[in-house]
Amino acid sequence: MDAVLALKVVQSSSSESLYSHRSVDINYLCSSIVMKSIRIPLSPPLPPPPSSPLVLSAAAPSFPVSSEAAIVADWSNSNKEHASFSALWQSAGYHLTLEVPELHNFTFIQGYQQIGPTCGLVAVYMVAKHLNVDIGSKRIFELAIEKKMTKFGEMFCAKRLSQLAQEVFGSQAEAILHTGELQKRVPEALFQNHLILIPYDTDRNNEPCLKQGRKSHWAILCGIIQTKNNMFVIARQSKSRLLGIWSLEKLVASNANLSITDDKLQSGSVIPVEGLTQSLAHQCIIVKKK
Questions:
Q1: Between the CA atoms of 160, 69, 59 and 284, what dihedral angle is there, to the nearest 10 degrees?
Q2: Distance CA 106, CA 59 (A)
Q3: Among candidates 171, 178, 136, 128, which has minimal Cα distance to 285?
Q4: Distance (Å, whole) CA 137 – CA 283
Q5: Is the pLDDT of residue 190 over 80?
Q6: Distance (Å, whole) CA 255 – CA 75
Q7: In sequence order, what are the beta bridge partners of 221?
Q8: What percent of the chain has a predicted confidence (pLDDT) above 90?
């Protein structure tokens, strides 16, 4: 019946075509119409492919806005191939291979990547891990927020960071704020096997530069190298897996030039009223292990 109705529709709507082709086989035409009226079900869609495992991006995610967020990403086995001084020195750049180390002292510190503007807090966390202090990075962030030291993880005050570090380290170490001359005090402390947290301006390659504080960053000094003509520090910071070997003179100059913050700083960041010249410049935190 459906085929007959369909045929009538075709005949009525296409009368000229049918009349001009009277030799068309009616049975063939009906069978074609019937076939066209049948809806062939489509095959069900293929299931979606399994989702790929999450891969930690090398780029830091957007920074946290509450203490519920993490402030570090784990760099497992980062730079452990340079855990010895000889391996580290051999991997150094050409300009350093021309130097011959006369004296050195080096302590390997495991690296962690910061998430957001949390370099000071992550520096405290890395030292805490080295001291075998049982505390997570999230808890350090929470403590800093509770004490109104930070909003997003930023730390523009060496004194406050030293107080936070002391609370975190407990009986494992002393966190002593040093203010004043650094050119002699830094190598002296490092040769005594202490660690140092120090603020400086970071360049694109993470080495010290002079940006007046617009690129202020925190690093851990974990070694010292004395050659015939120069003094170098070995530094760990949370924007690179690599340990840095920097000129002590350039680092001290970078620290001394800290005076203003970046114009692009997140609104609401905690900035000391006295300014960076008083809160960061000419200062470092010496960590004496007990």
A1: 10
A2: 29
A3: 178
A4: 24
A5: yes
A6: 27
A7: 196, 235
A8: 60
Beta bridge pairs of residue 105:
224
pLDDT interval class at 81 (50, 70, 90):
low
- pLDDT, average across residues 143-159: 96
Q: Check residue 60 and give its pLDDT.
A: 35
- The helix/strand/coil state of 105 is strand
- CA 245 vs CA 103, 208, 249, 276: distances in Å: 14, 11, 12, 25
Question: If pLDDT is split at 50, 70 and 90, which confidence band does 160 have?
Answer: very high
Residue 217: beta bridge partners? 200
pLDDT of res. 45: 57
Based on its alpha-carbon atoms, the radius of gyration of the chain, rounded to whole angstroms, reads 34
Q: In 3D, which of 157, 232, 222, 171 has the Cα closest to residue 196?
A: 222
Task: State how far the Cα of 144 lies from the Cα of 149, in Å rounded to an integer.
Answer: 5
Torsion of CA 138, 142, 144, 150, to 10 degrees: 90
Structure tokens belonging to residue 249: 């003179």
pTM score of the predicted model = 0.74
Residue with tokens 């957001």: 116
Neighbours of 136 (CB within 10 A): 14
Residue 171 · residue 288 · CB < 8 Å: no
When pLDDT is cut at 50, 70 and 90, the band that residue 187 belongs to is very high
- What span, in angstroms and rounded, lies between the C-alpha atoms of 95 and 93? 6
**Both structure tokens of 113:** 């990547």
pLDDT tens-digit map of 198-241? 999 999 999 999 999 999 999 999 999 999 889 999 999 999 98
Q: Percent helix, strand, coil in the chain (nearest 5)? A: 35, 20, 45
Q: How far apart are CA 93 and CA 42, in angstroms?
A: 64
The strand pair at 72-74 and 112-114 is best described as antiparallel
